[in-house]
Design brief:
Number of helices: 22
Strand content: 5-15%
Radius of gyration: 25 Å
Shape: globular
Distance between the termini: 75 Å
Strand order of the largest sheet: 4-3-5-6
């Protein structure tokens, strides 16, 4: 085959917009992830954290948790953690404003590689607080999209196709986890519960939950269609692939509106753009677009295939994709395994992972409420008990759930797991101790302090069953002159009796 013809075949000149969305979008998510670590890691995992990273590093090996914080001259301190976050955010900003994209073809690779390694070094020592599928999703996305290259070259067809396969792993993997998991996904009743029992609801979650039963059945069925069928359509010719990508994006936007899943949905939306061609976007929304092409391109058409994809670049990308395909073999087997794993890594670097979420569905919602009082004589039944407010998780029954994502409130998320039984973990007991002792660092992770920084004389922990208030209950409260409730709680149970922890 003629070399020019081969290079032309490997060129995806109609995906320059997709490349920009992927690279700048993933860089934005990296910025948010580093910002989240800057604000939360020291209090949760730092030198005086709930589960200190230095202790974890000492008890594990580099094979178990690779990290630059294992380097002899860069051992973990909270200050060094923030240096890493600052460098990571600066690297992300350079991509967001397009600096690496303006350089030679290869310049995007080291910039994304730097962000990947810095965040990997944080995530690998993050323990329970970083045990979420979207951590590995962001890392793997960042590792890959740098190989889309700068504006000097056209996007590679191999990379575009491989990113579509990534969408299959994410979406089809999630769909199969559901079908193999909870029976509520198979009988189409899962969405009867999801909006009310999800880890961190948003302001529209209550309205979504109160929709009629037929609506919830349609949601569940639609989820199956999108996750099990649409990803495979990405490999069909245009415009079918673009329509499939749009369907995936719309489904993810519905999840953005009705919940707070950090950057999980946004990362999936970005990856789905690998299926959307410039021509399709021009047909749908018109133009013109910014100057995001490569030299020799005009719109989506190349004038010289060899300038579109230089031979050395084509060889590099081909070798990279072959290597990634080898790493993806375990994930491929996992997709079709009866014992399918969810959010699993098959190598120490977290590349070629398995993804998925909500293989089981909780049908009721419990919330842990931590309360304090300044009265040392207070009892369980009597006293001026005031709740500690979290930034995102439900607590005050009158408070509408906030929009948090794509930012990630790690402590709030783990409080949902604590209510399911994770309270037996050491981090939860240390959290109660720190709150009870008036620890200033842990208070940075909470909402307004009911005691203005003063340690409570006593602290207690209770757990309630929560459900959304119905429209009738809200109207009745308004008629009685009372604040309209967002939640209704019942069935209080005691987890921790009134205790003085000021010496803790």
């Amino acid at each position: 085959m003629d070399l020019g013809v081969l290079l032309s075949f490997l060129t995806a000149e109609d995906y320059t917009i997709a490349r920009e969305v992927l690279q700048r979008g993933v860089a934005t998510l990296f910025f948010i992830a580093f910002l989240s670590a800057w604000n939360q890691f020291p209090a949760l995992l730092g030198e005086r954290g709930l589960t200190p990273a230095p202790r974890f590093i000492a008890l594990t090996t580099s094979d178990q948790a690779p990290s630059l914080f294992r380097w002899k001259h860069f051992t973990y301190t909270d200050r060094r953690l923030r240096i890493v976050c600052g460098v990571g955010m600066l690297a992300a900003v350079t991509v967001i404003i397009g600096l690496p994209q303006a350089g030679p073809a290869w310049t995007t690779i080291p910039v994304f590689g730097l962000m990947w390694w810095l965040y990997f070094s944080i995530s690998s020592i993050g323990q329970r607080f970083y045990g979420f599928g979207w951590e590995s999703l962001l890392l793997e996305s960042g590792f890959l999209v740098g190989f889309l290259g700068s504006h000097e070259v056209a996007p590679s067809l191999l990379m575009i196709v491989f990113l579509r396969w990534f969408v299959v792993r994410v979406e089809f993997g999630a769909g199969m986890i559901k079908m193999r998991g909870d029976s509520s996904w198979r009988d189409l009743s899962a969405m009867d519960y999801h909006h009310q029992t999800q880890p961190m609801p948003g302001p529209f979650s209550r309205r979504a939950h109160l929709m009629p039963g037929w609506w919830h059945r349609s949601e569940t069925l639609g989820s199956h269609v999108i996750q099990l069928i649409a990803p495979w359509l990405l490999f069909l010719p245009q415009p079918i692939a673009s329509f499939a990508a749009v369907a995936i994006i719309i489904s993810q936007l519905a999840l953005v509106v009705t919940g707070n899943y950090a950057w999980l949905n946004w990362a999936t939306i970005l990856l789905a753009f690998a299926g959307i061609s410039d021509s399709f976007l021009a047909w749908i929304v018109g133009g013109p677009w910014p100057g995001w092409g490569w030299p020799g391109s005009s719109g989506a058409e190349a004038t010289d295939a060899s300038s579109a994809l230089p031979l050395w670049w084509a060889i590099l990308i081909t070798a990279f994709v072959i290597w990634q395909c080898v790493l993806n073999v375990p994930a491929l087997r996992n997709l079709f395994s009866r014992g399918q794993l969810m959010n699993a890594s098959f190598n120490r670097w977290g590349l070629g992972n398995a993804y998925g979420a909500f293989g089981s569905m909780t049908e009721s919602r419990d919330e842990i409420i931590i309360e304090g009082t300044l009265d040392p004589e207070a009892t369980m039944a009597e006293g001026d008990w005031r709740p500690y407010v979290f930034k995102g998780k439900p607590g005050d029954v009158r408070r509408r759930s906030p929009i948090v994502a794509p930012y990630h409130l790690r402590l709030d998320w783990l409080m949902w797991f604590a209510a399911l039984g994770d309270y037996r973990q050491s981090w939860f007991s240390r959290l109660v101790e720190r709150i009870g002792s008036g620890d200033a660092q842990i208070r940075t992770q909470l909402g307004p302090d009911p005691f203005d920084g003063q340690a409570p004389a006593l602290i207690r922990v209770r757990i309630f069953t929560y459900r959304y208030a119905t429209g009738e209950e809200r109207r009745q409260a308004a008629e009685e002159g009372a604040p309209r409730p967002w939640w209704v709680r019942s069935n209080p149970r005691t987890m921790v009796e009134p205790t003085d922890l000021r010496g803790g």
